[in-house]
Amino acid sequence: MSSVRVIQVQENVFAKNDREAERIRRDMTSQGTFFVNVMSAPGSGKTTFLTALINSMKSRYRIGEMDVDIESSLDAQRVADLTGVKSLQIHNCGLCHIDADMTARALSEYDTKGLDLLILENIGNLVCPAEFDTGAHKNVSLLSVPEGDDKPLKYPLMFQVCDLVLITKIDTLDYFDFDFEKARERIHALNPKAQILRISAVTGEGMDRAVSWFEGEIAAVKAAV
Amino acid sequence: MSSVRVIQVQENVFAKNDREAERIRRDMTSQGTFFVNVMSAPGSGKTTFLTALINSMKSRYRIGEMDVDIESSLDAQRVADLTGVKSLQIHNCGLCHIDADMTARALSEYDTKGLDLLILENIGNLVCPAEFDTGAHKNVSLLSVPEGDDKPLKYPLMFQVCDLVLITKIDTLDYFDFDFEKARERIHALNPKAQILRISAVTGEGMDRAVSWFEGEIAAVKAAV
């Protein structure tokens, strides 16, 4: 029997990505910046949530935002217009995710020194972004009420890799059949440590708890410096 | 200067995929089956729409359904339970799309002879599935009101490759800021030939026009046999 050489391309790709991500994380920790990666399906309310979050925190913290989209610059512009913070649009040229190398290239264009909080708004996609460590300290995933409580069953990796799940658009509960308890059970079956918060960026409900989570994480990074 | 050899891996991958897709399409046409690929973001209402569509058409047409998900079998089971038609669950093992080769393997497990309509419910993702011709005659894309009218600007390829756009969940219009005219302009700027229909699978509004579109396409494939 002849010997067959097997090359594990995928593992090598991820190993290289993980090293680069670790380097980014170390740099962010050493400069006292909490770096957070925010992911969800398209239309879950990432930009609306982040705009409300930044406006609640910007008088007390120095905040920066980077926004990944295929080719438009709508979200970065919207965040910049509505909050006044510095926002960078990253065009990933048709790709379905952003990896640590792409994040590092974006960071080389953006002076993040002195920031307390740097937010990466990832591309709207529940599948691919979850596969790549971006170098963020924490991953946040949004699940909107109109999408349905079955999404953790269908996109499990996303809910495995996130530290915080924000159930968004809770002001529309009357219009949709969404069971919080089922959603919670499904998320915790995949990821028992995930924190879950219910919010509406429109009415403001639950926003105080989301702000507290971000403040706690900023304090944790500062304590580690 | 030494010469550099450039290999165009991506083009080769797509060329091979396109040949396989063309073969599937020819087979489907020759057996008189209209094969349609249904795509959207997670939670746009694909399964709800397809269940309502199949129930409206099943007394007059022989219909089959194939459902792509990463690892769950929820949607295929739901379609089978609610409509009684034969439904096949395809697990794509963590991938973000389905290509023609995967479709061909699924078709080899599913006797589609004699079907008037075969529906492929693609994985919930507005980015990757649009890149791969599955061998379907037509592509349908759903855009739900809660997602927002800006999605064509942010996920242009999806709206370029689709023949029909269904704007779904129009029963929730009072709750969301969604401008039909803006959505229409943005879709037609990318794809002037795309048909656009507004529907609610919950109230039934617009479902008659969607059924007519499917009936017309079935007739067109039968006429080409």
How does this structure look, described?
2 copies of one chain form a homodimer. Chain A has a single domain, classed as Rossmann fold, CATH 3.40.50. In chain A, 40% of the residues lie in helices and 20% in strands. The model of chain A has no long low-confidence stretch (mean pLDDT 92). Chain A has a 7-stranded parallel beta sheet with strand order 3-2-4-1-5-6-7. By secondary structure, the first copy, chain A, is an alpha/beta fold. In chain A, helix 7 links the parallel strand 6 and strand 7. The interface between A and B is medium-sized, with 35 and 35 residues.
Task: List the topology elements.
Two copies of one chain form a homodimer.
Chain A: H1 9-30, E1 34-40, H2 46-57, E2 63-69, H3 74-83, E3 86-91, H4 100-107, E4 117-124, E5 138-144, H5 151-154, H6 156-160, E6 164-168, H7 180-190, E7 195-198, H8 207-224
Parallel strand pairs in A: 1-4, 1-5, 2-3, 2-4, 5-6, 6-7
Helix pairs in contact in A: 2-3
Query: Are there runs of chain A of 5+ residues with pLDDT below 50, and where?
Result: none
What's the helix count of chain A? Answer: 8
Counting DSSP E segments of at least 2 residues, the number of strands of chain A comes to: 7
**Biggest sheet overview of chain A:** 7 strands, parallel
Oligomeric state of the chains? homodimer
Largest inter-chain contact set: A-B, 35 and 35 residues
CATH fold call of chain A = Rossmann fold
The helix/strand series of chain A, from N terminus to C terminus, equals HEHEHEHEEHHEHEH
Give the overall average pLDDT of chain A: 92
Inertia-based shape of chain A = globular
Helix content, binned percent of chain A: 40-55%
CATH level-1 class of chain A: Alpha Beta
End-to-end separation of chain A in angstroms reads 56 Å
* Beta strand % of chain A: 15-25%
Helix- and strand-based class of chain A?
A: alpha/beta
| Estimated radius of gyration of chain A | 18 Å
Arrangement of strands in the largest sheet of chain A: 3-2-4-1-5-6-7
The CATH superfamily of chain A is P-loop containing nucleotide triphosphate hydrolases
CATH architecture of chain A: 3-Layer(aba) Sandwich
How many discrete domains of chain A? Answer: 1
